[in-house]
Amino acid sequence: MKKIISLVALLFCCVYCAEIECPSLVDADSLSQTQLLERLTHGCRYDRLERPITYSESGNRLPVDVYVRWYVYFMQNLEAHDLQFKIHALLQLRFLDPRLTFRKVAPKRKQPILGEKPLRDNLWVPHIFLANERDSNIMGTNEKDILTSISPDGTVIISSRIKATLYCWMNLQKFPFDEQHCSTYLESWMYNTSELILHWEQKRPITFDPDLHLTEYILQQAWSNETVINADLNDLRHGAFAGNYSSLGFTVHFTREVGFYIMDYFLPSMLIVGISWVSFWLQADQAPPRIMLGTSTMLTFITLASAQGKTLPKVSYIKVSEVWFLGCTLFIFGSLLEFAFVNTIWRRKQNVDVKSMSSRHILKSTLSPRLSRRKARSRSFSSGTLGGTDSISLTGAPKFNNYLTVHNFPITTINENDTESDNVSKVTSFTTAPNSQKMDVALLEDGNSSNCNNEENKIGWTTLTPQQISQWIDAKARVLFPMSFLVFNVFFWTFVYIF
To answer: Mapping DSSP to helix (H, G, I), strand (E, B) and coil, where does residue 15 land?
Structure first.
């Protein structure tokens, strides 16, 4: 009898211990949500360190399918200098865990079990990370904004409000008329494709808040894709484990709003270039106002360009904005060079003989060496040397206004109607003069013949003063510079909006 009593007591203890170690799910409809959850996640039934395991009909172990939905309700403008952007989004993960099914044990319970972070901490959760993140965290005030739901069929949905700063490798060649494509990548951290596969939800996987608005960009469109990442020793972003890892990505297409840059950069730079042309309406001898106008416009434009460049990263390629600012700088610098050129011509002392009033002949006569003037100077110098020392200055330099004169000597002009004998007699009368007078007369005749030849060669030529040439160049610059700037704008804006 004692043996029977001891056996019954032992059996009762074993049953009691078993009930303590693995609580029963009988009559689970009468349990509270907390009690049901504690019994479902008890250590005898559930291991949160092990993923849900399912098998195919052939008995093969199947990977866990995790479905992802991404809801974006805030995006900050792209930060070009740091090549990044900030995003606030709701990340939702959905997967099936058969161990949490309570449909059979609690058939009257139709509503899912809801909880927050403490409920999630008791469950197995796939580790998903943002591959191109700079930093990220789960948002919340007192508690983290995490919502966990367990359906009667074992479907687990975990929603988290996250704030992330993501890298976006921008192409700024057409800045500020650029279009950017910024991507976000979600990848499995621990499990490879044989254990876990990520999928986008079939309906509306990526959704944007209707009130989402960007100040500098226009959100054109977004698209998603599913890929597999091959990790090896050269790519350790999945730890030290090699293999194929499931990855999800979505790309957002942005178009920059150019209204700010048109009003704050392009229109002011056009006005600055136009102000530099005001110097063309000032006389060339007014050096102080023209220099002040040119330098002030140049410094103002450099300040404007440097302020715009501070917001951009230092890249190796040339941007469209740099082409614009370089072109405007060349036009402003060209107006300064034009003033230096006309001021140099204005201070000249000699007039300029122009064959015709065309631009080619005026510029050629202004820029080319004056060969005729050099010949005249050499002839005057040689004549003064032969006639005496009166044509030489005290410093030894020849005077430029030297004219040969013959005093008390008859000058005879040979006409075409004179006979040969008359010509001979006239020539003979010249030869009877003294030797010094012979040389003077010969030089005079040579000078008269050369002057006649020059006068015959210069029929139809026009003599312009340096002041007239300077004013002519300024008048041409008033038309040439605006027309060239207009052509530059045509090519620039055609490239921006067509290519």
So the answer is: helix
